[in-house]
Design brief:
The complex is a heterodimer of chains A (about 450) and B (about 170).
Chain A: H1 18-23, H2 28-36, H3 39-49, H4 61-66, E1 77-82, H5 91-98, H6 100-114, E2 118-123, H7 128-143, E3 148-151, E4 156-164, H8 174-181, E5 205-209, H9 210-222, H10 224-229, E6 231-232, E7 235-236, E8 238-245, E9 251-256, E10 259-260, H11 261-266, E11 280-284, E12 293-294, H12 295-299, E13 308-309, H13 311-314, H14 318-321, E14 329-334, H15 339-353, H16 359-376, H17 384-395, H18 403-427
Chain B: H1 4-7, H2 16-26, H3 38-49, H4 54-64, H5 68-77, E1 89-94, H6 97-101, H7 104-115, E2 128-133, E3 145-147, E4 152-154, H8 159-173
Parallel strand pairs in B: 1-2
Antiparallel strand pairs in B: 1-3, 3-4
Classes of the chains: A alpha/beta (about 450), B alpha+beta (about 170).
């Protein structure tokens, strides 16, 4: 079993309290960073670790920290993006529920590295229980001297606050999140200027995902170079995967990047295979926004090499035959799932969540939803597939923020890989809802491996 | 139950305890950036009154020294704020892909049948309303629903567990 860097103590009773977390070596990284490292040295360790943003984009965290402008006399901010809303992703909820102090410890180190005196954790409003957990943990950390004035006698001051969102997927986009933190509608900003130059209230700001900030703790404890030894190639470290859909054991798993997808999907240590003895039809590997892949292309690349859970391997083949690691929201579809219905469902989501600022996204998502709805319900025509591809291409790249791309990719990829199923919905209109197209040639061509030894 | 037009006319008063909580929130931000307190304050208002009426929004605007439109545009943008009266318990069930893979649509049908009202409507006793919401980031425990204002979570729903939940709330709410 791989070593856990984030979830090592997740099953320790009371690990959400300061005492237990501290007794398991918690806050040692804060002591090490504040007492023995300069802020720039902390940034250097994170750069060496090769940590890439865990929220979905995969941008190197150390580099992002390095970009932060540091004008004299202007406040700087670290904002944690805990607006987890990408369908299929629930790792941040898990982390905040069971290991709130890990996030707080990472926030203290990150704020110190960036020179922030006040930092915010922006949590989606629906996670009110997690907001309460974090507020309690912050109070505990403060009374233990890890927050507030003159932390550990080093002269460093930090206040940490939790900010609830109002229920909007778009606020997971960093500039929309900053608008929301300022008490406005979550309309993404045009970049540049990037938040590192002008973020919240016009001040230099870094926005990082919950898991990225938590990963700073093992990076400081072990050293950036040690952390970089875990994983494969430019995919260093461990990643939390939220596994859901039709699998035997849904849940959050910490994996070393580079784990073969077959092992992740079928071994008892992780997903445990497809539920109810069914066969795998398709997988969305990184949250609903990434291209959906049929089982055969998911398990092996187009060159017939086994696919790995890493940024590079999952994207091998580009969007023609590959996908993305994204946020690690892993959704498995069994043979009885309808791809057309699911694509309609996802598109309805993006239509609902489009902020409405850019016409291609505001109008295009609604148009695609309508077309997919009529296809799913047996009222479509064979030209609808070309229409959908056309609309999706006109959204992609033509919007201020990536929500447009995120809405276009699932539709384009579903038609690319499952066109015959869409056509079947037209040619068998009377059965479109009542019967399922089934597995066809997407079936997993590989024998199921023996379950891993316990 | 009042019609929306009538309910919108009811003036609201903020208690001292509530405005104390507002003040606590405003202190989190730099001087002059009190607008940042808007989302958290609207949550508190909704927890207190069950929804966010126009008179309540006007009072929030006055408190934060904002124009009323700055509050309206925010309250109407975010999906969590109710701009019309709801049942005492609002059951919000996730309707996005991963939940649907494991039967959320059937649970929604059952919910509609059990409560006897359509999505967005309030039951005659004023106790319940329900609606489908987008991904609640709990796909591993699907299907799920939440109930405000504390947003308690109910996971791995079945028809039986939904029945029990509603019966329990009925007993509690009377």
């Amino acid at each position: 079993m791989a070593r856990k860097l984030l979830l090592e103590h997740i099953n320790v009773p009371g690990i959400d309290t300061y005492e237990v977390y501290r007794s398991k070596g918690g806050y040692a990284a804060v002591e090490k960073a504040l007492k023995t490292l300069s802020p720039d040295e902390v940034v250097e360790e994170v750069k060496k670790s090769g940590l890439r943003g865990r929220g979905g984009a995969g941008f190197p965290t150390g580099m992002k920290w390095g970009f932060l402008a540091k004008p004299e006399g202007v406040a700087r901010y670290l904002v944690c993006n805990a607006d987890e809303s990408e369908p299929g992703t629930f790792k941040d909820r898990y982390l905040m529920t069971y290991l709130p102090h890990l996030l707080i410890e990472g926030m203290i180190i990150g704020s110190y590295a960036l020179g922030a005196k006040v930092s915010y954790i922006y949590v989606r409003g629906e996670m009110m229980p997690q907001i309460r957990i974090l507020e309690k943990a912050i109070a505990e950390a403060k009374s233990a001297g890890f927050l507030g004035k003159n932390i550990l006698g080093t002269g460093y001051d930090l206040e940490l606050y939790v900010q609830p969102g109002g229920g909007a997927y778009i606020c997971g986009e960093e500039t929309a999140l900053l608008e929301s933190l300022e008490g406005k509608r979550g309309n993404p900003r045009i970049k540049p200027p990037f938040p590192a130059i002008a973020g919240v209230w016009g001040c230099p700001t870094v926005v990082n995902n919950v898991e990225s900030i938590a990963a700073v703790v093992p990076i400081i404890n072990e050293g950036g170079e040690e952390y970089a030894k875990v994983g494969v190639g430019r995919s260093t470290g461990t990643k939390l995967i939220s596994a859901g859909g039709n699998i035997v054991k849904p849940g959050v798993y910490e994996i070393d990047l580079g784990l073969p997808v077959e092992e992740f999907l079928y071994s008892d240590e992780y997903c445990g295979g497809i539920a109810n003895g069914k066969r795998l039809k398709a997988v969305v590997a990184g949250g609903s926004s990434v291209p959906i892949l049929p089982a055969n292309l998911f398990l092996k690349t187009i060159n017939n090499e086994p696919r790995l859970m890493s940024y590079e391997s999952l994207s091998e083949g580009g969007f023609v035959s590959g996908t993305m690691l994204g946020s690690g929201g892993f959704i498995a579809f069994d043979e009885d799932q309808c791809i057309v219905r699911n694509t309609w469902n996802f598109t309805r989501f993006y239509h609902h969540e489009s902020c409405g600022q850019c016409s291609p996204c505001r109008e295009g998502t609604g148009w695609m939803e309508k077309v997919l709805h009529r296809l799913e319900h047996g009222h479509g025509s064979l030209s609808d597939m070309d229409l959908l591809v056309d609309v999706s291409k006109k959204i992609e790249g033509n919007t201020i923020c990536p929500l447009g791309d995120a809405a276009a990719w699932p539709v384009a990829s579903a038609i690319r890989h499952f066109r015959d199923e869409f056509e079947w919905h037209v040619t068998h209109a009377s059965e479109a809802v009542s019967r399922n197209y089934g597995l066809a040639h997407y079936a997993d061509p590989l024998p199921k491996p023996e379950p891993a030894a316990q | 139950m009042l019609r929306v037009e009538e309910a919108e006319q009811v003036p609201v008063e903020f208690s001292a305890a509530l405005t104390d909580q507002f003040a606590d929130i405003v202190r989190r931000y730099p001087e002059g950036k009190q607008k940042s307190a808007l989302l958290p304050i609207l949550h508190l208002v909704q927890a207190e009154f069950g929804w966010v009426s126009a008179p309540a929004m006007d009072k929030v605007a006055a408190y934060l020294k904002l124009e009323p439109i700055e509050v309206y545009e925010v309250a109407s943008f975010y999906s969590m704020y109710f701009l019309r009266p709801q049942g005492k318990y609002v059951l919000e069930i996730c309707r996005t892909g991963p939940c649907c893979l494991v039967g959320a649509e059937k649970i929604m049908d059952h919910l509609e049948q059990k409560l006897g009202v359509k999505e967005g409507e309030v039951t005659a006793d004023g106790l319940f309303s329900w609606r489908g919401v987008e991904c609640l980031a709990a796909c591993g425990y699907a299907p799920v629903l939440q109930i405000g204002p504390e947003y308690t979570f109910y996971e791995n729903l079945t028809n039986a567990s939904v029945d029990k939940l509603i019966d329990d709330l009925k007993a509690k709410g009377k």
